[in-house]
Design goal:
Shape: globular
Number of helices: 9
Strand order of the largest sheet: 1-2
Helix content: 40-55%
Order of helices and strands: HHHHHHEHEHH
Structural class: mainly alpha
Distance between the termini: 50 Å
Strand content: under 5%
Largest sheet: 2 strands, parallel
Number of strands: 2
């Protein structure tokens, strides 16, 4: 069955239930299989081993997809399938009920009017390519309060949170942005 079709029909079904998390934790705690855990991490999220505290790999993988919901994961797969940012795809019949059309509408970034946006991004992010970031920035009609490319091309998506260096390369930047509003 099409992966996105499954996401549309059952968006609460993601492959990271409690049993899977428990299995990852047990496998990743074992020094003989920790490399396997890193390979799983790298395959899905990219990045570089030198950025991670490998002794924490079991904790990292046991908390995937932290900071998100199964609906967000489903929506991400749908946008990947559609090839551009669209609203949630409920299937033709439900789209017709919800949106008045068979397909979900495309998000139009030119309508974003928030003036308190900052972009922090990477050159090597599996989920946010530089091409897509540049397309989005070109469509915005508002000025960003910060536009920051992390200066380490080896970083992958989760290095923004899990890297040993995220404190000084990302978190400090975020705190500086927030301090402007204090």
């Amino acid at each position: 069955m099409n992966e996105c079709m499954t996401c549309r029909s059952h968006p609460t079904r993601v492959p990271f239930g409690m049993e899977m998390r428990k299995t990852y934790t047990e496998i990743c705690m074992n020094p003989n299989t920790a490399n396997f855990c890193y390979n799983v991490y790298h395959y899905f999220l990219g990045g570089n081993r030198r950025n991670l505290n490998m002794r924490r790999m079991n904790v990292f993988l046991a908390n995937v997809p932290m900071g998100s919901s199964s609906w967000n994961v489903a929506h991400f797969f749908q946008m990947f399938e559609h090839g551009h940012p669209v609203r949630f795809d409920y299937g033709p019949l439900n789209n017709l009920r919800k949106y008045g059309r068979l397909t979900p509408p495309i998000y139009d970034a030119s309508h974003i009017n928030c003036t308190d946006m900052a972009f922090i991004y990477l050159t090597n992010d599996y989920f946010n390519s530089m091409d897509n970031i540049n397309k989005l920035k070109s469509k915005l009609k508002v000025k960003l309060i910060d536009d920051y490319l992390v200066p380490d091309s080896s970083w992958g998506h989760m290095d923004l949170v899990w890297s040993k260096h995220s404190g000084h390369l990302v978190n400090k930047r975020i705190l500086d942005i927030l301090a402007r509003y204090h």
